[in-house]
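I am writing to request your help with a piece of structural work I have in hand. The matter concerns a single protein, recorded as an amino acid sequence and a row of backbone structure tokens. Could you please explain, in whatever detail you think fit, how the structure tokens follow from the sequence? Thank you for your consideration; the sequence and its tokens are set out here:
>
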Amino acid sequence: MISPDHEESKRRGRPGIFARLRSNFLAGLIIVAPIGLTFWLIWTVVGWVDSWVWPFVPGAYHPEELINRILGRGADNQIVINVRGIGVVIFLVFTVLVGWIGKGLIGRSFLGIGERIVDRMPVVRSIYNAAKQIAETVFSQRDTSFDKACLVEYPRRGAWAIAFISTNAKGEIHAKLTDGEPVVTVFLPTTPNPTSGFLLFLPKSDVKVLDMSVEDAAKLVISAGLVYPNGKPADALTSK
């Protein structure tokens, strides 16, 4: 015979309907939030590119104008539609054509003439050269990416932070700092925004190189330590 106390304990151990609804809502939110955020970011970026491209396209060639012209609609009964993505396609095609022309002899000649003209403009010269250096660094197809992820003691001894090794120190930096030991160039990103950070020049002995990839280290920085390489928790990695 089952005692009343046993039945009461079973009822107390079973979650209520609101607890189950809350659990299902949180589980669904974990699934829906990344998908929704991804689509929202894509939709926003595409719309931003379209808004930047369309002012340079004659109004007669906008999608709405073309569709209304094909359907024979007048100014009083036009169809209003939001066609996203065509501006992105126009931007990609235009950029490919500019790159193709710029790599040719004629394109390089015109580019050289334009840069010589810009070099004579004090303010414009500084802005253009800075933008060009940033673009060449970010979009260059040469091997200029970070080499490895590492740990450095920052902001004090005993406190460790994730950083990225770019290359060995060169030029005047190498001449001034090298004292029988190689000096490496290290970028120390901030959390959760890794696009800002600090440029450090450290002796190679002060840098602990990590086995994890640069991508995994970046995820660790962006997530503020919540996402570890291969989805493993911290204790699983340190127990090896």
